[in-house]
Amino acid sequence: MIGTATRTGLFDRLGIGLSGLCFVHCLASTVLVALLASAGGLLGSPHVHEIGLAIANPLGALALGRGIFEHGFMMPSSVGGLGLGVMTGALTLPHGGSEILATLVGVGILALGHDLNRRASR
């Protein structure tokens, strides 16, 4: 199953999808915090970010690491690793605008790494 999933780029597609969900979550949380402080508190909880990062790190390592062995290019993995690092670093920032911006930048870089990995596997 894992062999088939890696050959079809399933993990990269999942990574891109998870990056998109994270992006939507960050934007929706910002809007909800601005509109509804109580509802935004749940979505803006640091635990949601920590759980999301706990899912993103192994998925990213699996998908991007697999790409190195499959196509031999390190750049997609390096770009994706930078994105994961920016996302992880965002957790150290004060909760608010700078954290959201850093997370969105990290998510975008990570999605780019997954896309490069998927394209290199063709």
Structure, described:
The chain is an all-alpha fold and 122 residues long. It has one domain. The chain contains six helices and no strands.
Topology overview:
Elements: H1 2-7, H2 10-35, H3 37-43, H4 46-71, H5 75-90, H6 97-120
Helix pairs in contact: 2-3, 2-4, 2-6, 4-5, 4-6, 5-6
Supply database-style keywords:
122 residues, mainly alpha, 6 helices, 0% strand
Q: What separation lies between the terminal Cα atoms?
A: 19 Å
| Biggest sheet descriptor | none
What count of domains describes the coordinates? 1
Topology as a string of helices (H) and strands (E): HHHHHH
- What structural category characterises the helix and strand content? mainly alpha
Q: What's the overall geometry?
A: elongated
Strand content: under 5%
The proportion of residues forming helix, as a percent range, comes to over 70%
Strands, count: 0
| Helix segment tally | 6
Low-confidence stretches: none
